[in-house]
From TrEMBL, chain B:
InterPro entries: Asp/Orn_carbamoyltranf_P-bd, Asp/Orn_carbamoylTrfase, Asp/Orn_carbamoylTrfase_sf, Asp_carbamoyltransf, Asp_carbamoyltransf_Asp/Orn-bd. It comes from Streptomyces justiciae. This is Aspartate carbamoyltransferase. HAMAP family: Asp_carb_tr. Belongs to the aspartate/ornithine carbamoyltransferase superfamily. ATCase family.
Length: 193, 325
């Protein structure tokens, strides 16, 4: 997804309506955790990597749920994709976020990338490039809280919290308690200037 | 819009903290199996060195390569400069080759400023040391080293150096490192004291944002970091002190003097060190001496500066001095 589109316009959407509330988000994450365990046959070699900012918090919450289910410690980290973006030259340089790879690395493991919104797919393409410089996972999967469509690249999510059909005139904003003080997903109209 | 880095005095506090924070993330690239980022792919950077340098040139080259830029190295020796070519003609040659940035070291103070403001070239200009004027990336890497050691890697993020007491000792007169450090450390909120023999203190120092002392022993006990400067023989055209022995007795740092510093305080040196002159081997090899760390940090800082000046469609660093002119 394009962070520029969703996060920077928070104050411009007065008529935004919630499509997921706190308890919905918790249920959705529980379901995704179960799906990961099911598909990975026990999640023995799973490593969760969140994409900053909100993907990191989602990854940490997912890890906590997975630990409840499997009774094992699940490695969780973050993957900053800023320097791999394909639109770097179209904006002023952005501040970098933290890349934190769990101690045992990602070689030969099942990496699940976690992000809040899947939109154009360009963030995930950048994340795949970034992963390439860090190691060679056995496989890479993608978990997102919201899939809002409008893909510009041949990329799809393996685990989707909610499919949200949108028009390009709408914005999707995810708010999480760790960053925004509350859990919600807002759908609003893009302000035209 | 400001695309150049000419002087440490041009940086605002927020610019400087942004550079330090960015460098902290860049430093982590050094721990990866593939120490490379695609960020400056397709950009060409010339390292234009009219004056000898080991550390700075290698450090810039490593930073440029880690960000995937195309690097052209130019040294005055063995180039047309030795045949008498002027800076202007050299610059226009580079411009014709389509260079995106010029990293310049020059023996004449003001050469990078001239290059940036003359209209000879479109490229971004980064000062890698000019005469006795400025060496901004050195000041940035020194501040980065201090923040890491005195505050902490993660604890330091977003922080400046408020309240830290920094002592800079030695040949201030000829030192661009001292000038850049005084400017940047003041911007970052630190208190700077210069210690030097009266002959090596520049005229006009009273207008600098720092204190001056002639007595090293009395300032050591209240220093969080002590930065030793090399006596720059190659720039000296007069006798500034009677003998080397007298200089190192009064202004050199030995084990006995280091013991007077607070327990947490660090010893810094921009290199190259002259062991036995401004610093003894005992101090240079101790755990409190950050010389090697400063070199490693230099690569991270230069990656951060290059990313913030060249990584986007316009620079993220907002300093303004040249715009005013």
């Amino acid at each position: 997804m394009d962070k520029h589109d969703t996060h920077d316009q928070q104050d411009t959407q007065s008529d935004a309506r919630p499509v997921l509330e706190g308890p919905d988000i918790a249920r959705v994450l529980t379901r995704i955790a179960h799906e990961i365990v099911e598909r990975a046959k026990g999640a023995d070699d799973v490593v969760l990597l969140g994409i900053p900012t909100r993907g990191v918090f989602l990854a940490q919450r997912l890890a906590a749920k997975l630990e409840e289910i499997t009774d094992r410690k699940i490695p969780v980290g973050s993957l900053d994709i800023t320097m791999y973006r394909d639109d770097l030259r179209m904006h002023p340089p952005r501040a970098l976020a933290r890349t934190e790879i769990p101690g045992d690395g990602i070689d030969g493991r099942l990496v699940v990338l976690v992000d809040d919104v899947l939109f154009s797919g360009r963030t995930i393409r950048a994340a795949l490039d970034a992963l390439n410089d860090i190691g060679r996972p056995r496989a890479v999967q993608l978990a997102v809280l919201v899939d809002r469509g409008h893909r510009e690249l041949p990329i799809r999510a393996d685990y989707v919290g909610k499919n949200l059909p949108t028009s390009l005139r709408e914005t999707v904003k995810v708010q999480l308690a760790e960053e925004d003080g509350r859990d919600t997903v807002l759908l609003g109209a893009k302000q035209t200037q | 819009m400001q695309r150049h880095l000419i002087s440490a005095a041009d940086l605002t506090r927020d610019d400087a903290v942004l550079i330090l924070d960015t460098a902290e993330e860049m430093a982590r690239v050094a721990d990866r199996p593939i120490k490379k980022l695609p960020t400056l792919r397709g950009r060409t950077i010339v390292n234009l060195f009219f004056e000898d340098s080991t550390r700075t040139r290698i450090s810039f080259e490593a930073a440029e390569k880690r960000l995937s830029a195309d690097v052209i190295n130019f040294t005055a020796k063995g180039s047309s400069v030795s045949k008498g070519e002027s800076l202007k003609d050299t610059a226009q040659t580079l411009e014709a080759m389509g260079v995106d940035a010029v990293v310049i070291r020059h023996g004449a103070s003001g050469a990078p400023y001239r290059l940036a403001t003359s209209g000879w070239i479109d490229a971004a200009v980064i000062n890698a040391g000019d005469g006795t004027h400025q060496h901004p990336t050195q000041a940035l890497l020194d501040a980065f080293t201090m923040r890491r050691r005195l505050i902490g890697r993660d604890a330091g993020l977003g922080q400046d150096l408020s309240g830290k007491r920094i002592t800079i000792v030695g040949d201030v007169l000829h030192s661009r490192v001292a000038r850049s450090n005084v400017d940047l450390l003041h911007t970052l909120g630190a208190e700077v004291t210069l210690v030097a023999p009266p002959t090596l203190v520049p005229v006009g120092v009273e207008t600098w944002p720092c204190e001056v002392s002639y007595d090293l022993d009395s300032t050591l006990a209240k220093s969080d970091a002590v930065m030793m400067l090399r006596v720059q023989r190659e720039r000296m055209n007069a006798a500034f002190f009677p003998t080397e022995r007298e200089y190192s007795r009064r202004y050199g740092l030995d084990g006995e003097r280091m013991a007077k510093m607070p327990e947490h305080a660090i010893v810094m040196h921009p290199g190259p060190m002259v062991r036995g002159m401004e610093i003894t081997a005992e101090v240079a090899d101790s755990d409190r001496c950050t010389v090697v760390e400063q070199v490693a940090n230099g690569v991270s800082i230069r990656m951060a500066v290059l990313y913030l000046l060249l990584g986007g469609n316009e620079p993220a660093v907002s300093h303004t001095r040249i715009e005013e002119k």
